[in-house]
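User: Sequence in, structure out. Go.
Assistant: Echoing your sequence, followed by the structure tokens.
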Amino acid sequence: MLNDYEITRVENEKVQYILSLLKLVACSVAILCSILLLPDVANKIYETRETMVDDSLKIRVVANSNLEADQQFKNEVVENLQPIFAQIQKNEISGVDNDETYAQLANFVEKYYADANVKINIGENLIPPKLDETFFYPQSLYNSVVLTIGDGRGDNWWCSIFSNVCERSAEKEEAQEVEEEKKVKFIIWEWIKKLFD
């Protein structure tokens, strides 16, 4: 049988009361500051992002279908065109005209993919809705370069030049798996928890 032990507290109750009260005030101030400041900061971030993204050039390569062979072919096309896409990106950022690079793109596609029925559309193109991390691009007409392989009924590779968002389907899946492994922490919540530990 276990003996009963008496647990006694050595700490001064008055000091503990004052510390608890100070922690409560600090938490209240932190919550109030976050309520007042975060919406304004978030609005400024979204306003800045919207002006950057809406004007940015989009690049889209659409596969013939979702069959594995068509998706692999699309990835091969994207990989082979990466130097040209990088040049388009560089020109867009520096404000240089892309006419010469577009001609180079057309020549490359004609030379290496003439049998694949690849169509190139440059200008205002209808792009379906797209979710990029936390930003949602609604379906709309965007200034874009769209390469459509065959019927263009498959998943696409998509890139927004200004925000430097370029992804492949496989890379997106890998990124989602990595994100699931990461644990999200909120700074204020972690700070509050430390106060009461």
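User: And one key feature?
Assistant: Confidence is low (pLDDT under 50) at residues 168-173.
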